[in-house]
Amino acid sequence: MNGYSEIEREKANLINATSISLEQLEKSKNETLYFEKQRAMNQVRQRVFQQAVQGGLGTLNSCLNTELHFRTIHANIGILGLIQGMFFICIHAF
Fold first, then answer.
1. 71 with 48, same domain?
2. Does residue 73 sit in the same domain as residue 36?
3. What is the pLDDT along the chain (94 residues), one digit of tens a residue?
4. What is the Cα–Cα distance from 13 to 94, expressed in whole angstroms?
5. pTM for this one?
6. Structurally, how many domains does the chain consist of?
7. Which stretches are transmembrane (predicted)?
C-alpha cells in the first residue's frame, strides 16, 4: 500500500509539474505573439510614416517647382519689359 501511495504522489507531482510547464509555455507563447504583433504594427506605422513623408516631400517639391516657375516667368517678363523700354528709348533716340 505504501508503494502504491508513493506512485500516486509521484503521479500527482508529475501532473502538477506538467500543468505548470504548460501554463508557462502558454504564457510564453502569448507574450511572443504580443511582441510579434507589436513589431508588425510598428513596421506598418513606420511604412505609413515613410510614405506620408515621401508624399509630403513630393507635394512640397511640386509646389516649390511651380512657385519657382512663376517667379522665373515673372522675372523674365520684367526683364523683357526693361529690354522693350530700352529698345524704345534707343529707337526714339535715333
1. no
2. no
3. 688 899 999 999 999 999 999 999 999 999 999 999 999 999 999 999 999 999 988 888 888 888 888 888 999 999 988 888 777 777 776 6
4. 119
5. 0.55
6. 2
7. none
